[in-house]
């Protein structure tokens, strides 16, 4: 595996590969890697000649300094896992390399109402930071395909919107959520859960499954209330549980209102904030 910390040698290397006809897949991450991340790497490896993974804990997307400081960092283990998964290139830059001093990297794209709801409402400025870093990383790596997880539903929806708005020459592929045996979505943040909170956290998946089961004979409002009950009764603190149009991310009042409907939720397990989602209704093929 080739490891780069600087933009220039990375770009030189990728230019050579591109000249040789290689198609490049790109998996941006914030490290503390788990099987969910590796599933993105594997999908990229299957569909491209060369896979680039980045590990960068992006300061501009953290709205709380303490959250940024407490974000898990396990670089040695990450390198081992990526090499084990056959990743060809790892980009691990310092902050100044991604955000050169004096540069203005704010991306001029109107997110409309996509970032007013859910994560956008509870984490002000978060998606502005996400858009900024993904735009910059795409500029640096110049991949043919970008791989993101459905785990961060609102995130990939906003990045898809950015790619379309700026007409960027990259294809976005969204990979399914990998879960622990009890259903908890894999997340770097799970490492920070106490044993008790880790047990309680499985209620998030139970609430999402209940939502899917209740779809036939309940309204979104009823499902939402009961899902929050499941989460709270397990000892977690629900932040939101929304049933939304899978394209616009606006809440729906009934399931006929949108072709694709998704339940998205955020809850606190002790000091750790967890997010998850489940597609309740897919567009008819
Ligand atoms: P992160 O390191 O949390 O920024 O995540 C990097 C990428 O991995 C994002 O596109 C996430 O959506 C994706 N990802 C995170 N957790 C999972 C998971 N459990 N299953 C699939 N993809 C995931």
Plain-language structure description:
The chain is α/β, with parallel strands linked by helices. The protein is 40% helix and 20% strand. The protein is built from eleven helices and nine strands. The chain has helices spanning 7-19, 35-47, 65-70, 75-84, 95-98, 118-122, 126-141, 153-166, 195-200, 203-214, 220-233; strands at 2-4, 24-29, 50-55, 89-91, 145-149, 171-175, 237-245, 261-269, 272-281. The strands form two sheets. Strands 1-4-3-2-5-6 form a six-stranded parallel β-sheet, sandwiched between helices. A three-stranded antiparallel β-sheet has the order 7-8-9. The protein is globular and about 55 Å long. It starts with a strand and ends with a strand. The relative contact order is 0.13. Adenosine monophosphate (AMP) binds at residues 29-30, 36-37, 39-40, 148-149, 151-152, 175, 177-178, 185-188.
């Amino acid at each position: 595996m080739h490891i780069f910390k600087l933009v220039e040698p990375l770009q030189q290397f990728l230019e050579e590969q591109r000249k040789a006809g290689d198609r490049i897949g790109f998996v941006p991450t914030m490290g503390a890697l788990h099987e969910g991340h590796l599933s993105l790497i594997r999908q990229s490896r299957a569909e491209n000649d060369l896979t680039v993974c980045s590990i960068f804990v992006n300061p501009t997307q953290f709205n709380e300094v303490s959250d940024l400081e407490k974000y898990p960092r396990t670089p040695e283990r990450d390198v081992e896992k990526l090499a084990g998964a056959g990743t060809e290139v790892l980009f691990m830059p310092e902050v100044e390399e991604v955000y050169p001093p004096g540069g203005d990297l704010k991306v001029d794209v109107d997110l409309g109402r996509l970032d007013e709801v859910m994560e956008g409402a509870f984490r002000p400025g978060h998606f502005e930071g996400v858009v900024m870093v993904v735009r910059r990383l795409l500029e640096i790596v110049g991949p043919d395909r970008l791989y993101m997880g459905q785990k961060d539903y609102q995130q990939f929806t906003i990045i898809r919107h950015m790619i379309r708005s700026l007409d960027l020459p990259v294809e976005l592929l969204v990979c399914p959520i990998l879960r622990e045996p009890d259903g908890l979505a894999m997340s770097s943040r799970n490492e920070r859960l106490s044993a008790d909170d880790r047990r309680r956290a499985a209620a998030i998946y139970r609430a999402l499954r209940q939502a899917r089961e209740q779809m036939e004979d309940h309204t979104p409002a009823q499902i939402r209330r009961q899902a929050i009950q499941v989460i709270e009764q397990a000892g977690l603190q629900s932040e939101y549980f929304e049933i939304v149009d899978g394209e616009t991310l606006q809440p729906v009042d009934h399931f006929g209102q949108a072709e694709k409907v998704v339940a998205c939720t955020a809850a606190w397990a002790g000091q750790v904030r967890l997010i998850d989602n489940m597609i309740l209704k897919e567009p008819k093929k």
